[in-house]
Amino acid sequence: MAMRSLISERVSCRSSVLGARWMSSWWRNVEPAAKDPILGVTEAFLADPSPDKVNVGVGAYRDDNGKPVVLECVREAERRIAGTANMEYLPMGGSVKMVEETLKLAYGDNSEFIKDKRIAAVQSLSGTGACRLFADFQNRFHPDSQIYIPVPTWSNHHNIWRDAHVTQRTFHYYHPGTKGLDFAALMDDIKNAPNGSFFLLHACAHNPTGVDPSEEQWKEISYQIKAKGHFPFFDMAYQGFASGDPERDAKAIRIFLKDGHLLGLAQSYAKNMGLYGQRVGCLSVLCEDEKQAVAVKSQLQQLARPMYSNPPVHGALIVSTILGDAELKKLWLKEVQGMADRIIGMRTALRENLEKLGSPLSWKHITNQIGMFCYSGLTPEQVDRLTDEYHIYMTRNGRISMAGVTTGNVGYLANAIHEVTKSA
Ligand code: PLA
Questions:
Q1: Nearest residue CA, atom 12 of ligand 1?
Q2: Other beta carbons within 10 Å of 275
Q3: 281, 329, 362, 413: least CB-packed within 10 angstroms?
Q4: How many whole angstroms separate alpha carbon 162 and alpha carbon 131?
Q5: Is 285 helix (H, G, I), strand (E, B) or coil?
Q6: Distance between CA 15 and CA 20 in Å, rounded?
Q7: Which residue, 335, 328, 352, 330, is CA-closest to 407?
Q8: Are strands 119-125 and 146-151 parallel, antiparallel or unpaired?
Q9: In this predicted model, what pLDDT tens digit does every residue of 250-275 receive, in sequence order?
Q10: Quick one: pLDDT band at residue 4, thresholds 50, 70, 90?
């Protein structure tokens, strides 16, 4: 008996050693992931002890003291909802009220498509989640399709469609020489893409370039996309940040709607309501009729269910409280305008500071570009110098988040930019 237990003990001991060895090799071949080109900048900034440090990396709005902002309309909505709502699960498609209000912002208060129930829409995990849900939907129902992505674009677009297993192609967008839109090449790429391709478009305040097509150019783009039978997918992460007026910033969408496109749309409240960490957004797909919209929505929900089941409730309640109340909505619109105006003011200040320093380069593009970012034209090496010598943090593509520029740091920033570019 004793002999037997000794043997079994030895066996179990041996198998646990083997087990331990086996277990320890589970993740042995995992290499550290490359740093994210945008969020990695925030990590580096936080790790820098210098009192001079400036973060113009991530596109997060700051007040003129460099502090994060919670809008007054959001504070008021929080006061109104405090202690009133339960914390039950939302439906898989999220808050119906929030989605309703969100669609109005993009499609128009009196949109015939809303009335005709032709829009399949679900609450998403902010703009990123909306893009990802669409990419997965695209892959599920058009597994052999490709997505045409502008050059350059928000770096995460590439990750999103890659992880959704959709083949990516690019189209011309920005012209480094003119620091503006490469319209002719863009139109050629639309024409030359195989009929029925998917095109990713930034609805306004293009990230990272700050360069948007004019109204006339949008009309031509819409015409050509329609002629080729392409599917336009709009990412609208900055509605209100281009002109200060969300209604005006929906111009491109409205042109496409008028032209009779079916389209997809990602909306986000991260920037225009300052709800970054609340992760509130919406994915919508305009369908041929109500029946199709019902089917598409049910499929979007089925994609969401195994990923995150249903979206978070608090941010959605803040949004629907604000947009469902005329007075709070008015306050919100005023505050969006205020954020856009402060950024526009900082564009002028940065350009003027550089000109006053006698910079030999032209900085007109700082004030020509719109939205949250200035695509400065700084090279990766110049950006590295800004970071190493001046503790100024930005993405290596030379993108400056104007939302992080303040009266207090604009002089320092201009001087540093001048120092690293004056001999270029
Ligand atoms: N689409 C575009 C074009 C964006 O610029 C961003 C955010 C998103 C979608 C996603 O935003 P959301 O998921 O927070 O709603 N771009 C930021 C942040 C502001 C980031 O990279 O995540 C940027 O600095 O580019």
A1: 127
A2: 23
A3: 362
A4: 12
A5: strand
A6: 8
A7: 352
A8: unpaired
A9: 999 999 999 999 999 999 999 999 99
A10: low
pTM for the model stands at: 0.94
Nearest of 397, 412, 409, 353 to residue 57 by alpha carbon: 397
For ligand 1, atom 21, name the residue with the nearest CA: 38
Cα separation, 346 vs 351, in Å, equals: 8
Question: What residues contact residue 83 under an 8 Å CB cut-off, 6+ apart?
Answer: none
Distance, CA of 131 to CA of 415 (rounded, Å): 38
Q: Which among 357, 346, 279, 350 has a CA at the least distance from the CA of 311? A: 279
> How do residues 41-99 score in pLDDT, each as one tens digit?
999 999 999 999 999 999 999 999 999 999 999 999 999 999 988 999 999 999 999 99
**Residue minimizing CA distance to atom 17 of ligand 1:** 59
Q: How far is the CA of 410 from the centre of ligand 1 (A)?
A: 23
Residue 243 pLDDT = 95
At 328-357, the pLDDT tens digits run 999 999 999 999 999 999 999 999 999 999
Ligand 1: residue whose CA is nearest its atom 19: 59
Pocket test for ligand 1, best of 156, 283, 343 (most atoms within 8 A of CB): 156
Tens of pLDDT along 21-31? Answer: 556 789 999 99
- From the CA of 159, how far away is ligand 1's center (Å)? 13
Which of 154, 233, 241, 249 maximizes ligand 1 atoms within 8 Å of its Cβ, making it the mutation to test the pocket?
Answer: 154
Q: Are strands 119-125 and 373-375 parallel, antiparallel or unpaired?
A: unpaired
Q: Residue 261 CB: number of other CB atoms within 10 A? A: 17
Task: Please give the distance, rounded to the nearest whole angstrom, from the Cα atom of residue 5 to the centre of ligand 1.
Answer: 62
CA distances from 20 to 5, 12, 15, 16, 252 (A): 22, 12, 8, 6, 59
Locate the ligand 1 atom nearest the alpha carbon of residue 202 and give its number: 3
Ligand 1 mutation target, pool 42, 56, 128, most atoms within 8 A of CB: 128
Residues marked active site are found at: 154, 235, 271
Interval 368-417: pLDDT, tens: 999 999 999 999 999 999 999 999 999 999 999 999 999 999 999 999 99
Task: Please check the confidence at residue 107 and state whether its pLDDT lies above 70.
Answer: yes
pLDDT at 404: 96
